[in-house]
From TrEMBL:
Annotated EC: 2.1.1.14
Annotated stretches, region: Disordered: 413-435
Cobalamin-independent methionine synthase MetE C-terminal/archaeal domain residues: 428-750
Protein's name according to its UniProt entry: 5-methyltetrahydropteroyltriglutamate--homocysteine S-methyltransferase
Gene3D superfamilies: 3.20.20.210
GO process terms (BP): methylation
GO molecular function annotation: 5-methyltetrahydropteroyltriglutamate-homocysteine S-methyltransferase activity
Length: 757
């Protein structure tokens, strides 16, 4: 096989979904975790999926195919493993060094095992994908111990594809890592850069020896302020890697926004052969290129097809952009704006969308065809085979009534009175975040109901008995503020999307969220309104079963947008206000039905924060405004809760305070309560519930462990405003572990309360 001299303009993608068209990887992994299948069986499924992706890309007409975009869990974890950077707590001396032993250790780092909590998990930039945060310290020595990129390269080569292996770049890897607990104060992982770059050099040599002609090093960190500021490190890393004799060509790929002229100049002047830029997320890419007088002989990989939203491309406008770019570089490759990891695989699998909507959509498969088409159009001219008139929906989905209502709102629609009394008279009030475990029986009932095989009344009876059980369990455990458990919801966004006008859902549009967990983000395509109450029936039923307060449970506007594919024909803030208005009606109905605690989850507030500071104010303005529009209609005595599943509060603490919720529950367990110290220092004035244990892990925390977290919390935060809760909903857990963990949590709260006198 030799490299095709090929057309002047080539086509590629940064990456492709790895879970399989039917979530094959999820099923194979979960069965392996249960012990039902062997490592070899799991590896076979993975290998088939990889080969299927190469074949799909080839069939779509993509010239340059990436590899090593597959992962059993996460590409950052893969990179840590590749360079021998897993913490020692995952080392099991009894474990064999064979495939099974290696996989077990890998999954232990991802998911935790008794005695060894997993790596922290956090959002990958501003997406809904989660990566595992490597823990590094000055005494670790990055060395090339793994062979995954080489093995996957060879596997592809054997199948006839000379691929471009993709690795997380050294700068991004280190800036996304954190200092281990035992690292000296003030030390940061970037100090390992030179050693790590040496380890990359050795992997590049191995890839070259295996026959790789080009590698892709992903440096999305350059789209953030932190990455943009690391110019010296960028220069050092790529001067060193580019200067190696024994290496494939290097493509440094950036995405999730422009990188600025300074970083671009460093890359242009470094000895790397190609640079990937995103021309979709913002419109600064061309100005950056112009500022450095073009890339000259450095190949430009131009991300002009949106990689993380589902709208069909505007082909004529992409052609125009590429035309401009042709003048700014000698060699051009057309690509997606980022990996296609963030979109569903194939629109063809969908059957239920209205034709006008469907005509506006493109999933991964369709996007690869758009990229290939652009490559052909630029190389050969003509765009005949493509319906170039199809673009994102616009005027057809306008609802004048919604617009008029929003227009008529005054400033008082966003305000609650400052003085509204304490939500409860208890210190350390115990509660949960909303969802309870979802049994197989419940999932089957929901699926049968969805297929029309289970009658409405029977289905409702099942939900009511589930609520009975969850309420009884919470009373038995001794929790203070109860929840109905969300048995009617498959997903906290999808449930509402299905009940709101302006939203469509998909049947197979799965996207990886973390590990084997996938979600089906709905599609927000038009003006949003609420035809009927969405949750009142279930919350009031739950409240009728107990004398304790039950929290109503809604998903907030920012999260409704963040976990959906959202229209791009109007500002996000406008779309968020429409969602907020619909939620405000729901909040009013809940309150009217006697519900005294209402939680509006804004799990995505932090992850939606623009990567660059200069764009954050505008975002926080509409994010805060829409939350307040949704919640400020209630009486002063109703307690408004919100929940966020992350703990890097620093950047948005002002925003969170501005939401003006009475109680905010946040994740803290996995980041070891760093947050409480932070909040203590700031003097957060309303209620706060720092999660006391990690629900992402099957591990049951002991009473002592939770007690220690709570004692730490009360040493920083006034106990009256402190709430006790897990760090997120329980729906991904089983009853056995959830129940035990909650019992331990309530016992820990009792012990600490007793000492408060
Ligand atoms: Zn959460």
């Amino acid at each position: 096989m030799t490299t095709n001299p090929g057309p002047a303009v080539r086509s590629t993608v940064h990456g492709y979904p790895r879970i399989g068209p039917d979530r094959e990887l999820k099923r194979a992994e979960e069965s392996y975790w249960k012990g039902a299948t062997t490592a070899a069986e799991l590896e076979k499924v993975a290998s088939d999926l990889r080969l299927d992706v190469y074949a799909r890309l080839r069939a779509a007409g993509i010239d340059d195919i990436p590899s090593n975009t597959f992962s059993y869990y996460d590409q950052v974890l893969d990179t840590a493993v590749l360079f021998g950077l897993l913490p020692a707590r995952f080392e099991d001396p009894t474990e064999a060094g064979d495939a099974d032993g290696r996989l077990r250790r890998y999954f232990a780092a991802a998911r935790g095992v008794q005695g060894a909590p997993p790596l922290e998990m956090t959002k990958w930039f501003d997406t809904n994908y989660h990566y595992l945060v490597p823990e590094l310290s000055p005494d670790v020595r990055p060395r090339p111990v793994g062979d995954k990129p080489v093995v996957e390269f060879r596997e592809a080569l054997d199948a006839g594809h000379r691929t471009r292996p993709v690795l997380v770049g050294p700068l991004t890897f280190l800036l996304l890592s954190k200092a281990a607990d035992d690292a000296p104060e003030g030390w940061s992982p970037i100090a390992l850069l030179d050693d790590l770059v040496d380890a990359y050099a050795s992997v590049l040599a191995d890839l070259r020896a295996a026959g790789a002609e080009e590698v892709q090093l992903d440096e999305p960190i350059l789209a953030t302020d932190e990455g943009r500021a690391a110019l010296g490190e960028l220069e050092r890393a790529y001067t060193r890697l580019g200067g190696l004799d024994d290496r494939p060509r290097i493509l440094v790929s950036t995405y999730f926004g422009s990188i600025g002229a300074d970083a671009l100049r460093v890359l242009k002047e470094s000895p790397v052969e190609a640079v990937g830029l995103d021309f979709v997320t913002d419109d600064e890419g061309i100005a950056d290129l112009t500022a450095v007088s073009g890339l000259g002989s450095t190949r430009l990989v131009a991300g002009v097809i949106e990689g993380r939203n589902v709208w069909r491309a505007d082909i004529p406008s992409a052609v125009a952009t590429l035309g401009t770019l042709l003048a700014l570089t000698d060699e051009l490759t057309v690509s997606t704006s980022c990996s296609l990891l963030h979109v569903p695989i194939d629109l063809e699998a969908e059957t239920s969308q209205a034709p006008e909507l469907r005509a506006a959509l493109a999933f991964a498969e369709q996007k690869t065809r758009e990229v290939a088409l652009l490559g052909r159009v630029l190389s050969e001219g003509g765009e005949g085979e493509y319906d170039i008139d199809a673009t994102a929906p616009g005027a057809a989905f306008v609802d004048a009534r919604v617009r008029a209502r929003l227009e008529a709102l005054g400033p008082d629609a966003y305000e609650r009175p400052e003085d509204r009394g304490a939500p409860t008279d208890l210190p350390l009030t115990t509660t949960t975040i909303g969802s309870f475990p979802q049994t197989g029986e419940l999932r089957r009932a929901r699926a049968a109901h969805r297929r029309g095989e289970l009658a409405e009344e029977e289905y409702k009876a099942i939900l009511r008995s589930e609520i009975d059980r969850v309420i009884a369990l919470q009373e038995d455990i001794g929790l203070d503020v109860l929840v109905h458990g969300e048995p009617e919801r498959n997903d906290m966004v999808q449930y509402f999307a299905e009940r709101l006008e302006g939203y469509a859902t998909t049947d197979h549009g799965w996207v990886q969220s973390y590990g084997s967990r996938c979600v089906r983000p709905p599609i927000l395509f038009g003006d949003v309104s609420r035809p009927a109450p969405m949750t009142v029936e279930w919350i009031t039923y739950a409240q009728s079963r107990t004398a304790k307060p039950v929290k109503g449970m809604l998903t907030g506007p920012v999260t409704m947008l963040a976990w959906s594919f959202v229209r791009t024909d109007q500002p996000l803030g406008e779309t968020a206000r429409q969602v907020a208005l619909a939620l405000r009606d729901e909040v009013a109905d809940l309150e009217r039905a006697g519900i005294r605690h209402i939680q509006v989850d804004e799990a995505a507030l932090r992850e939606s924060l623009p990567l660059r500071e200069e764009r954050r104010r505008e975002y926080l303005d509409w994010a805060v405004g829409s939350f307040r529009l949704a919640t400020s209609g209630v009486s002063p005595s109703t307690t408004v809760h919100t929940h966020m599943c992350y703990s890097e509060f620093g950047l948005i603490v002002g925003g969170i305070e501005a939401l003006d919720a009475d109680v905010t529950s946040v994740e803290a367990a996995r980041s070891r309560m760093e947050l409480v110290e932070d909040l203590g220092r700031r003097g957060f004035k309303r209620g706060i519930g720092p999660g006391v244990y990690d629900i992402h892990s099957p591990r049951v925390p002991s009473v002592e462990e939770i007690e220690a977290s709570l004692r730490l919390a009360v040493s920083h935060i006034d106990a009256g405003g402190l709430w006790v809760n897990p760090d997120c909903g329980l729906k991904t857990r089983g009853y056995e572990e959830a129940e035990q963990a909650l019992r331990n949590m309530v016992e820990a709260a009792r012990r600490v309360r007793a000492d408060l006198g």
